[in-house]
Design a protein that fits this description.
- With 139 residues, the chain is mainly alpha-helical.
- It has a single domain (2-138), classed as Ferritin (Up-down Bundle).
- The protein is 78% helix and 0% strand.
- The protein has 5 helices and no strands.
- Helix 1 (2-22) runs antiparallel to helix 4 (86-108).
- It is globular and about 45 Å long.
């Protein structure tokens, strides 16, 4: 489960970084700033989860080739180009909802410590803020 969370966070981070570089249009500055903040935040979340995996003895679960393979699969249906950044926001919104599902599974695992639950709760808090902002942008 933690590997799924790490893969999903890395997928979201790389996609947000991509969107940061290719967004354009009348809302360029706002969109560019949002995606820039998002990819930096998601990179920190990924790093925290990867460190927790190692701490829990799962070094083999953060093999970069496995993570990249998961990211590749995760980005298969992602829009890479758009005339309007709303398409990027809509895709990210969908990924935030998937993130919430993964976090819920992690928290419900019998082996989840209080510290792990607190860590993923912090990630969920940041995700909810991004979700709100994405929802406002795609209206």
């Amino acid at each position: 489960m933690l590997q799924d969370l790490a893969i999903h966070l890395r997928t979201m981070q790389l996609y947000a970084h991509h969107c940061h570089g290719v967004c354009k249009g009348a809302t360029f500055f706002e969109d560019h700033s949002f995606f820039g903040d998002s990819y930096k935040e998601l990179d920190g979340d990924y790093d925290s989860i990867a460190e927790r995996i190692v701490h829990l003895g799962g070094d083999d679960l953060i093999n970069p080739l496995q993570i990249l393979e998961g990211v590749k699969i995760g980005l298969m249906d992602a829009p890479m180009e758009a005339k309007d950044s709303k398409i990027f926001f809509a895709y990210m919104y969908k990924q935030e909802k998937r993130l919430a599902q993964i976090i819920e599974q992690v928290c419900q695992a019998p082996s989840a410590s209080q510290g792990l639950k607190n860590l993923v709760a912090d990630i969920a808090d940041r995700s909810e803020v991004r979700c709100y902002r994405q929802g406002q942008r795609i209206k």
